[in-house]
Write a structure and sequence with these properties.
alpha+beta, six-stranded antiparallel sheet, 6 strands, about 35% strand, about 140 residues
């Protein structure tokens, strides 16, 4: 679900802003997009209500990224027993003019799959950002 729609309280808005800042600190040319999904019925059917989705767009095709746009989906699990919500993984996909070029999932082996993979340097930075995202969303509130 679009990050802009998920920012329903100060704590979530602050965590979303932290993710944007983490990404832009490593990749300052990227422009953030808190509403990467269209607001039409077809798209709404595909959107996961248990995710926070943030897009990033580069000014052109990046050779090191092998993509022009990045979609970060932070996946959550709502525990019905103690009514807690925690981040269980991050999915990242890179897109070029043909569509999805590559994907990274932290749920299984933290490996990249796709036809045009990002450079190893970008891949390591992205994995580090994913680790930070999980820390940000799973730290206890005070």
């Amino acid at each position: 679900m679009n990050a802009a729609e998920q920012a329903t309280n100060l704590e979530l808005a602050s965590k979303i802003a932290t993710v944007v800042n983490l990404f832009k600190l490593e990749f300052p040319d990227a422009k953030s997009d808190l509403k990467p999904w269209k607001n039409d019925p077809e798209t709404r059917e595909l959107v996961d209500p248990d995710s926070i989705d943030i897009g990033f767009h580069f000014p052109g095709i990046s050779k090191s990224w092998r993509s022009r746009s990045i979609l970060i989906q932070i996946r959550f699990y709502q525990d019905p027993i103690n009514d807690s919500r925690r981040a269980i993984g991050v999915e990242v996909a890179g897109f070029d003019h043909r569509g999805e070029a590559w994907r990274l999932s932290t749920v299984e082996n933290w490996g990249f799959v796709g036809e045009s993979l990002p450079s190893s340097e970008v891949g390591e930075k992205l994995k580090q950002i994913c680790r930070h995202i999980l820390e940000v969303f799973n730290q206890a509130s005070h």
